């Protein structure tokens, strides 16, 4: 009877530890899924979404949704990269990056701007994958900047990211 009791106590202890480990794992998983830093859904202020929408409109109003989405993703990829400002507006209005910012032109095609706003919000809400494939740069000249590789061409733009260093 003593051996049965010992076995029972060991099994009970093992089960208690297993339940505890499972509880800790579930709690960590739930925390990671709700932690905004780890979420694919981004939180941006109205001002930041406005800057993103203006960039998409001015850079890609004549492009397909895919072309506009690639510009939006490229802008957001820059925000995540240490070489660029940490906000969308900082990236968009960084000197010598987006040529239209020098002149701050008016929005003339309201439907195109509404499309840019809708797509920007959808990207921020996590509804679109990164069609730029991690690009940090784009241009309409299809001239690859030094030290980059073309990730994709969409409409009139080519998108580029830095070449990964050899390890």
In short:
With 167 residues, the chain is mostly helical. It has helices at residues 2-34, 46-60, 65-80, 88-92, 110-124; strands at residues 137-139, 148-154, 157-162.
What does this structure look like?
The structure is a single chain. By secondary structure, the protein is mainly α. It folds into 2 domains: 1-39; 46-162, Orthogonal Bundle (Arc Repressor Mutant, subunit A), CATH 1.10.10. It is built from 5 helices and 3 strands. The protein has a 3-stranded antiparallel beta sheet, covered by helices on one side. A hairpin with a 2-residue loop joins strand 2 (148-154) and strand 3. Helix 2 packs across helix 3 (65-80). The termini are far apart.
Please give the count of helices.
5
> Tally of extended strands?
3
Order of H and E elements: HHHHHEEE
CATH class of the largest domain: Mainly Alpha
Fill in the CATH topology of the largest domain.
Arc Repressor Mutant, subunit A
Radius of gyration based on Cα positions = 24 Å
Give the N-terminus to C-terminus distance in angstroms: 63 Å
Could you give a short account of the major beta sheet?
A: 3 strands, antiparallel
Oligomer: single chain
Strand composition percent: 5-15%
Stretches with pLDDT under 50, minimum 5 residues = 18-40
Helix content: 40-55%
What CATH architecture of the largest domain would you give? Orthogonal Bundle
Topology of this structure?
Elements: H1 2-34, H2 46-60, H3 65-80, H4 88-92, H5 110-124, E1 137-139, E2 148-154, E3 157-162
Antiparallel strand pairs: 1-3, 2-3
Helix pairs in contact: 2-3, 2-5, 3-5
């Amino acid at each position: 009877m003593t051996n049965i009791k010992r076995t029972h106590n060991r099994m009970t202890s093992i089960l208690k530890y297993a339940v505890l480990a499972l509880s800790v794992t579930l709690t960590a998983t739930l925390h990671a899924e709700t932690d905004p830093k780890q979420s694919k859904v981004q939180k941006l202020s109205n001002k930041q979404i406005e800057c993103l929408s203006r960039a998409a409109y001015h850079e890609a109003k004549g492009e397909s949704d895919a072309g506009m989405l690639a510009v939006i993703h490229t802008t957001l990829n820059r925000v995540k990269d240490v070489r660029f400002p940490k906000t969308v507006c900082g990236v968009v209005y960084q000197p010598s990056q987006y040529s239209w910012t020098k002149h701050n032109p008016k929005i003339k095609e309201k439907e195109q701007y509404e499309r840019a706003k809708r797509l920007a919000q959808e990207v921020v809400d996590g509804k679109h994958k990164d069609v730029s494939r991690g690009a940090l740069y784009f241009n309409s000249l299809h001239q690859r900047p030094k030290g980059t590789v073309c990730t994709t061409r969409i409409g009139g733009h080519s998108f580029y990211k830095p070449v990964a260093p050899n390890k």
